[in-house]
Amino acid sequence: MVFGPIPNREYHEGFMRKAIEMAEMALASDETPVGCVFVHNGEVIGRGINGTNASLNGTRHAEFVALAEIMAKHPSSILKETDLYVTVEPCIMCASALRQYRIHAVYFGCLNDRFGGCGGVMTVHSDQGVDPTYPVYGGLFREEAIMLLRKFYVQENNKAPDPKPKKNRELKTEILPVSTPNMLTPAAMPTVEVAKLNLGKPAKSG
Amino acid sequence: MEQVRSFTAKVFAHFPFPPLLRHVFHFQLHLLAAFNRARHAIMGLPIDSKAASLSGEARKRQMLHLKTKEECRLGNETIQVWTVELPSKHAEGILKVIKDNVEHQDAIDLQHLRRFAKPKYLPQHVLGRRDLVKEMYLVPQAWEASAPTVMQMPDATWEWSTASKMRTNNRPPTLYLMVCPSETISLRDLHDLMLQHPPFCSSPDSWAYPLEIKEITVPRLAPTSPDQAKNWSDMYWPTFYRKTNPFGAHPTTIEKAETDLQTPLEDNISVEQALELADYAGSLTEKEGFGICTGCAIVERVDDKTEIIAVAGDARRKPLPSEIGVDALNDNDDANDTSITDSQDGTNVPISANERTKARREKRKKKKAAEKAANEAETSGCTSGNVMSHAVMRAIGMVGRKRLRVASQPISAESNFAAAGLEHNEEARDAFFLDLPVNPLEQQYFEKDNLKPDGYLCLKLEIFLTHEPCMMCSMALVHSRVGRVIFKHRMPKTGGLTAETVSNDTGPVGLGYGLCWRKELNWQFTCWEYNAAGKRAAGDGTADDNKHLNLLPSCDNANVGKLSFNSIHV
Predict the structure, then answer these.
(1) Are residues B134 and B275 in the same domain?
(2) CB distance B393–A59 less than 8 Å?
(3) What is the domain range of residue B117?
(4) pLDDT (tens digit, 9 = 90+) per residue, A62-112?
(5) What pTM was computed for the model?
(6) Do residues B306 and B216 both lie within one domain?
(7) Same domain, B10 and B122
(8) Three-class DSSP category at A189
(9) In terms of domains, do B454 and B490 share one?
(10) How many contacts (CB atoms, under 8 Å) link A and B?
């Protein structure tokens, strides 16, 4: 249950706050504002922001950038006892990579209704497959995560094949209640939703 | 036939058969002729032309376009609809009645079906049995509509002139109307509605046409090929094929790609050559102990000219900085060194004697490594090694690096990352992503500045793969906006591109993700499975080609077929 209650929520919010800070850095440096931290035994062992625009590589997502930092010092087996905190639900690609690396658990802010792999579009984390599944917990600082994305997408993407003029775009601040076809949402939970951006093609997001 | 006929003629010439016997003989001949006609009719083609077209067909089968998720899911879906037979001159009127009175009659898109169908085009179960009352209804109509002079023609029978009149009018006496899906309106309501309007109510001009509403089954969705349309027309109801495919790539797009790749222009790379290159890349990195035997080649096509942009083999076992010194990887080190210094700078360099002994040594090593890999795969699934160094990820990374290099305005890579105040170790990052060449073959293609400058990601590039990529790599292809993907071997347990979840004639059942064409994702690309056996069967590979193929080490026989390999993410 992606949006179920998260035990010890404050503890996890502490790390999600760090992920949000990373996303803010990404926004400041012209990248899709997705940030993440990997936490092993209460210690941050990897941090990442989206790097697609700088690398001209559409697969250089925040999770991968952070993994590169981790693997510089640790064997990949460390991920079995490592949790990921990421502002936006991992995409299908990252969800599969994390599963292949056997991540321990994933905490995220908002869903990704364009290409989310942990409930937004597909459920790669829990589908039948050769690797063990991993649990995901959504909804930590969801509003902040959505607002960061909106701030980014009102900008124009000059790298897109035909950039769309977005002069008349307004930054919406209203956040809609959750609509999650792929999972159950307990009524008592604060609502979590997909980032309903409906804007042009993005450079990339997490 | 000719032979038989001449033979019998000769027989008759020599032996004066009694008339009766001759007759029997002739009768048998007729039977034979009829049988042959029927046989030709069944096969649809004269025998000669069928044989001629066989090689073309087999050739085409080399590239099997993958079915999309929707094509797999919806291909056989049907829906129940009401139909009614009515005199054709009332067709417009009744259609208007339905449009005006039946709410949501067009809520379900059935544009692929004819609204009105002539009886002669309908399958028998829709027509039902002959109805004399209906036929009677048409009599006075014909009488009134026919000019008296025609009727008085001495040699014209009454029925005949009616039929002729109808033919010249080009209007069949009755038509069948597909009213609407039967869930839209109940039979009783529809019945009542129809009875209020001509021709189903009696009028001063004519008596009521007998109302008979039937429920029939029709295909719910548009056909995706002309053959399918024909089958459905025979089985259900006249169906259009509009040469479009709402559930996948447009047929002309697929055709164009298949032509580009299977009959390439001069100097352009063919699908076979590109796959061979991917194969070679995979076998090299495996030989070097870097990874499993899977490879990727990326091609750009600009103004009908192809350029090989990147070639990469799998390198998941290349040690990461954190793992260097780990004993499991040590025995591969010398193999790495030799292969890098070897002057293997082409795909078709003949192998020297010196190298042959080395190759033998490496073959033993390879066997050992393969066994090790198999064991590992069985015990630890596919986590062994660096997931980021799958061939697809490496090749996409190389394209990004090339883009940075050929950009008309310099882009300072990762400067944003540094600007954001994050320290990072470039060496460690490169070792993790491995988006730099690891051997002379990869280097040879990487160092060419042959990519069109200032392009976007891997937009419309063509990807050639030895194996169906895993979910991570499949989605990486979506993110990179690739154009065409062709792979050789399906990976039913780990592959992300095939869509079948139910066994059928197209191949083994996979996970059913069908990532190449998912409407809910923001990018779709065309994808083929390449079947080299199709080529061999067609027999149009020249001897040279085959010799060339045999010379190269290939991924084909290395791992595929091993049970444990099936569980590996490629």
Answers:
(1) no
(2) yes
(3) 76-139+171-235
(4) 999 999 999 999 998 999 999 999 999 999 999 999 999 999 999 999 999
(5) 0.68
(6) no
(7) no
(8) coil
(9) yes
(10) 173
The pair of structure tokens assigned to B124 is 């028998």
Q: Which residues pair with B326 in a beta bridge?
A: none
- Which of B361, B309, B272 is CA-nearest to residue B556? B272
Residue B46 in domain: yes
Low-confidence ranges of chain B (pLDDT < 50): 1-58, 60, 148-153, 156-169, 325-351, 374-383, 534-553, 557-561
Q: Per the structure, how many domains does chain B have?
A: 3
B481 to chain A: closest CA residue: A58
**Which of A56, A99, A152 to substitute to test the interface with B, most B CBs within 10 Å?**
A56
pLDDT of B373 reads 52
The residue with tokens 């053959």 is B227
Which residue type does B85 have? Answer: E
- B179, B313: one domain: no
CATH number of the structural domain spanning residue B321? 3.40.140.10
Q: Which residues of B are less than 8 Å from A53 in CB distance? A: 416
Q: Which listed residue (A21, A31, A63, A81) is catalytic?
A: A63
Q: Are residues B278 and B389 in the same domain?
A: yes
Query: Can you tell me the mean pLDDT for A176-200?
Result: 43
Would you call A31 a catalytic residue per the annotation? no
ipTM of the complex: 0.85
Tell me, yes or no, whether B447 and B496 share the same domain: yes
Alpha-carbon torsion (B263, B265, B266, B270), positive or negative = negative
Q: Which residue has the tokens 């969705």?
A: B221
Residues B8 and B104 in one domain: no
Q: Are A107 and A137 within 8 A, CB to CB?
A: yes
- Among the partner residues B393, B412, B428, nearest to A68 by beta-carbon distance: B428
